Amino acid sequence: MGRAAIKTSDPEGRQPDRGVARRQAFLQAAREVFLEHGYEAASVNDVVRVAGGSLATLYAQFGNKEGLFLAFMQDQHDRFAREMRPPVSVDGMPLEEALQMVGEHFLRRLLQRDSLAFFRVMVSEGRKVPEQLRRYFTTGGSNMIHDELTGQLKRAGLNETDARESVAYFIELLRSRHQFQALTDETYVVSDAELKAHVARAVRFLLNGLKAS
Fold first, then answer.
1. Which of 13, 72, 104, 165 has the fewest CB atoms in 10 Å of its CB?
2. Which DSSP letter does residue 13 get?
3. pLDDT at 131
4. What's the CATH code, domain 18-63?
5. What is the 8-class DSSP label of residue 185?
6. Which whole-number Å values give the CA distances from 97 to 109, 125, 148, 152, in the listed order?
7. What is the DSSP string of 135-152?
8. Weakest-pLDDT range from 1-5, 56-60, 114-118, 122-126
9. What is d(CA 17, CA 29) in angstroms, rounded to the nearest whole number?
10. What is the dihedral of CA 104, 81, 169, 154, to 10 degrees?
11. Helix, strand, coil shares of the chain as percentages rounded to 5?
12. Per-residue pLDDT band at 43 (split at 50, 70, 90)
């Protein structure tokens, strides 16, 4: 049985412009197809089959397969940048509590299946879109967290350079143990208790290092 064509709607219930709605449908379908198959194995025909519409409309919107892939990469970049933001403001929180909350949110999002799939696509296909890859690593979700926590450490008394370097190490502590295992083993699962404990250890490591310095 074939999959139903993707439908799009405005969050407030308004009907979007037809061209905008068609573009959104193509991007949602491209996300599904590219994350599952990568760039080389994916077909624009698969995207049209998932999204509905016609191949001619897809080409009119994106030019070709590469143009669609570039638009997909940008859309994913923007999505993750938004979703990596903490769900609530940590301004005014005690430093340890803020680090724990931001760290848990970051790692949970990083380990979700679509995040892992997108990272695999970036690594395998990034040479085709070096500018998008560079933007992801300089303005993507990790950098949203980096800026948030740098501000926290500066308010705690660190200078700009020390705060940024400390946060960079903290982020690597958060991701290195679990992300790479999850990238290479689709059965790898981190329980919520394990995730919280892992983040707490990273927080203690950072705070102890700051006290020692």
1. 13
2. S
3. 73
4. 1.10.10
5. -
6. 19, 38, 13, 11
7. HHHHHSHHHHHHHHHHHH
8. 1-5
9. 18
10. -90
11. 75, 0, 25
12. very high
Q: In 3-state terms, what secondary structure has residue 42?
A: coil
pLDDT digits (tens, 9 = 90+) for 86-102: 777 788 889 999 999 99
Q: In the 3-class helix/strand/coil scheme, how is 57-112 assigned residue by residue?
A: HHHHHHCCHHHHHHHHHHHHHHHHHHHCCCCCCCCCCCHHHHHHHHHHHHHHHHCC
Q: What are the backbone angles phi and psi of residue 189, rounded to the nearest 5°?
A: -130, 135
pLDDT at 44 over 90: yes
The Cα 12–Cα 89 span in angstroms is 24
Distance from CA of residue 78 to its chain's centroid?
Answer: 8
Q: At residue 153, does pLDDT exceed 90?
A: yes
Domain boundaries defined on the chain: 18-63, 74-212
